[in-house]
Amino acid sequence: MEHLFEAQQLTPKTIKQIFSVADELETRPHRCLEGKIMASLFYEPSTRTRLSFESAMHRLGGDVIGTENAGSFSAAAKGESLEDAIKVIGNYADIIILRYFEKDIAKRLSAISSVPIINAGDGAGQHPTQALLDLFTINRELGRVKGISIAMVGDPKYSRSVRSLAYLLGKYRDITIHFVSDPKLRVEKDILEYLDRHKIAYTESNTFDGIIDTVDVVYRNRLQKERFPNEKLYEKCKNALLIDRAIAGRMKEGSILMDPLPRVGGILPEVDDMPQAVYFKQPYYGLLIRMALLKHFLT
Ligand code: NCD
Q1: How high is the pLDDT of residue 72?
Q2: Which atom of ligand 1 sits closest to the CA of residue 221?
């Protein structure tokens, strides 16, 4: 694996290796990336992904260069193409972390980049490092991935986190996925075809009644308002499928409630101190996973 642009590239064997490096770096952090430089190139807003990658690089002894608002602060503002920028940045950095608003861009650029590119989110496409940290969270909190049932609630249509996690779960056995959303926000066909091919059971519904109390994981994700075709759809959906204390209290014993964050209304703050709420642990697991990924690509 020279670049990471989509979750399908990750095999269970590679995932296991990355998880064990993450475990190792948690207990024995070491400065294995001294002398290496990571470029973080973000054309879309980010808090967790950019800062956790940058923190991960610093913690491993490496250096970071970059621009967090690349559309305005890089030569893109003068009209330079992303292709040209990637060719140039390959001279300055050993790895590029890229977030951009166009689907499949990281895959396309990996063909011309002289250094590894990691997709940190490509429009409504994929977010493979988020899926990896989500899977790591499930594994840490439940002690297994195989055989789990998960409800993906909110916006399966436009969420790149949902797409990448569904693709990743498709690699494990006996998984059941329930997509819960407004009919206008149903999961895209490519995901369903992939799940069919991998013999993963799934359902689609408008409500989590009959689902929320049976699954091992509830994965709530915010409505991706910035990708909606119109404001009307957002207004219609914004108050639906909210998770408050009463709803979270219906979850089965030992199950977990996740969110890639930002939550923006999906889960109410009154849920935060409930035992099932693990969404503020995910950013910590994300730091470990991104340290492991940087080590994987740079050593
Ligand atoms: C996600 C993203 O950017 O896709 N955020 C993140 O990286 N944790 C989810 C989102 O914005 O809803």
Answers
A1: 82
A2: 12
**What is the C-alpha R_g of the chain?**
19
Give the bridge partners for 4, in sequence order: 118
The pTM of the whole model exceeds 0.90:
yes
Report how many helices (DSSP H) and strands (DSSP E) the chain contains, helices first. Answer: 11, 9
Helix (H, G, I), strand (E, B) or coil at 76: helix
Give pLDDT, residue 79.
87
For residues 282 and 258, give the distance between their C-alpha atoms in angstroms, rounded to a whole number.
8
Question: In the numeric block, which tokens belong to residue 278?
Answer: 């693990």
- Which atom in ligand 1 lies closest to the alpha carbon of residue 222? 12
- Neighbour-count burial of 220, counting CB atoms closer than 10 A to its CB (0-12 exposed, 13-18 middle, 19+ buried): buried
| Residue 48 annotated among the catalytic residues of the structure | yes
Question: Token digits for 108?
Answer: 């396309």
163 neighbors 46 (Cβ within 8 angstroms): no
DSSP 194-238: HHHHTT-EEEEES--TTTTTT-SEEEE----GGG-S-HHHHHHHT
* Token couple for 89: 């940045």
- Ligand 1 within 6 A of CB of 221: yes
Count of alpha carbons within 13 angstroms of residue 232, beta-carbon side: 2
How does strand 149-154 pair with strand 217-220? parallel
